[in-house]
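Sanity check record (used in CI):
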Amino acid sequence: MYKLTVLSVLLCATWNIALSLSDGLLPNGNFEYGPKPSEMKGTLVKSPNAIPNWTISGYVEYIKSGHKQGDMLLVVPEGAFAVRLGNEASIKQRVKVIKGRFYSITFSAARTCAQEERLNVSISRKTKPTSDWDILPIQTMYSSNGWDSYARGFVADDWDVEILIHNPGVEEDPACGPLIDSVALKLLFPPKRTGGNLLKNGNFEEGPYVLPNTSWGVLIPPHIQDVHSPLPGWIVESLKAVKYLDSDHFTVPEGKRGIELIAGKESAIAQVVYTKPGLVYDLSFLVGDANNYCEGSLVVEAFAGRQSVKVPYESKGKGGSKPASLRFRAVSRRTRVMFYSSFYTMTNDHSGSLCGPVIDDVKLLISRKKPGHA
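Expected output for DUF642 domain-containing protein:
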C-alpha cells in the first residue's frame, strides 16, 4: 500500500511537471474559443467565465477581426478574435508551473482609442497577494500594423500561478481600451558564464517566446518596468524597449536570435560582469541589420569600464553584419558592459516604424595582449 501511495505521488508530480513544461500559447491564449451568444450583448461579454479558460472582470469585449469602430477597422494579428479591455477591466488565467523556475510571458496588444493607453501584467498565487509590475505604457507603437508583442519575466513561487492582464486606464468612454491577443508562456533556462564567454547569454538564444504567426518580434520593456528581465543575463537599461528578433522572420547575425536597438540612445542593454582590476579584456560582437527595410548609416556604441567604441554600419536594409571589438583594462571588480544605438532610425517602407542596428554573438574574454597592441 505504501509503495502504491509513493508511486501515485511520483506520477502526479511527473504529470504536473510535464503539463508545465509546454512552451507556447496558454489554453485558449488566442481567444479563438469565445462566449455563447446568450453570454454577450453586442461585443460586450456579460458573464465572468464566458470566455473558455479565462475569468474576466469589468468591461470586456470580444472582438472579431474586421470589427468597425467608427472609421477604424480593428484587425486581429493571429486568428480571428481578440479581447478588448475597457476601464479597469481585466482577464486572468491560472496555469501550472514549476515552483522556483524562471518564466517569461509574451502577449500582443494594440491601441484602439487613446494615445496614453496602459496595461498592468501581474502574477499571483493562491496564498499571497498579487505581485504587480509597474504600468506598461503602450502609447509608442513599434510595428507597422498597430500591434506589438511584449514580454515579461517572473520566478514561479508556487506550483500554479495566476496571470492577470489589467487595463488601469480611466477614459471618458469606458469601452475604450487596448486589444489583447496571443498570450503565451515559456520556461527559461538562464545560461551560466563559461570559460568561452564571461557574459551570460551573449548570443541571446535564451529569451521570451516568439509568436510563430507574427512578424514584428517581441518588445522587452526597460528594466525600470520589469524587475525580472525575460532576456536572462541582460538588463534593458533605458527609457524604451529593445526588440527580440528570431531568424524565422528576420535576419540575425548568428544563431536563431538577436537584439535590435530600436530607439537610439533610449534603447540600451547592459550586463554587469565580475572582472579583476588591472587585467585586460576583449569584448567582441557582431553588428548588422534585420532585413526589415532599416536603411542608412547605423551606429552602435559599446561601453566597457572606462572604454567605449562607436561601430558604424552602412545598412541597405537587406540583412548582413560585420564584426566589432573593444579592448579595455578593468578598473574594478565589477564592469558594466553596455550597448546602444547612436541615432533614431525609421524603416523606409513609409510605415514610420522605429528600427535600428542588430547586435549578436557578444563575447567577453581575458585578453592575452595589452591595450593598443594588435
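Residues 1-21 have pLDDT under 50 and may be disordered. If this sentence no longer matches the regenerated C-alpha cells, the check is flagged for review.
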